[in-house]
Amino acid sequence: MSLIDLLFLVLLLLGLWAGFARGLVSGTSRIIAYLAALFLAARFAAPVGQLAGAWLGVGQFVRTMIGGQIPESLHNTQVPPEQLRPILEAAGVPAAYRDQMVEYAASHPLLDAIALPYTEWMSMVLGLILVLGVLFTVFSLLLKLLVKKAQDFVPAPLNRIGGVLLGGILVLFELAFVALMLQAFADLPQTAGLKTAISSSELLPPLAHLAQTLIEGLGTDGLLPTAIQTPPAL
């Protein structure tokens, strides 16, 4: 079992304990808040991700990492798509990224063509997590008063047992988006250590797939780049 799997299991146990402490009513309100936040976050992730990515310098960060792998004399060279594809295949770039890079190569210099798909992916995931976190907090606070009143009508044993169940579900949702973020970083060049850790994880692929399923279930097909919609084989 990898270190990532152990960390996920510890967080799952903490989530179960938190669910027991909060109870069924609080857990129900948190699930409702989470799904409502995800519904809206999936629709505002793109613009927020672009703004946050620009402010945090995600594009420059990616360009710097990728620029170190390409001779500087080729950074601003426009490489014909038919010549770029075999180079990317030889470099082991995931197929979903290759297709985007080859498409961008028709109208962008080499460095931009390779960096843009990574930048778009990271910015989208960043925007999704930022908006989800803010909206979940807001909705949870709005439901807090209702939770206090409803808890008086639920038997204590049912409240605790139901809380454990919903606490587990909620922490799985949260871990799913952590897995999605780790996957985004692992596909960047110069992150071989993270890629190795992820490749040995048995829990990360299904968790990342859960995040993908949640997003698609909200009717937002196409929100995330193809590489996220069909995660590369690890």
From TrEMBL:
Its main location: membrane. It is found in: Membrane. InterPro entries: Colicin-V_CvpA. The chain crosses the membrane at residues 31-56, 121-143, 163-185. One of its GO terms (cellular component) is membrane. Keywords: Membrane, Transmembrane, Transmembrane helix. It is a multi-pass membrane protein. Pfam families: Colicin_V (PF02674). One of its GO terms (biological process) is toxin biosynthetic process. It comes from the Bacteria. This is Colicin V production protein. It comes from Tumebacillus avium. The lineage of its organism: Bacteria, Bacillati, Bacillota, Bacilli, Bacillales.
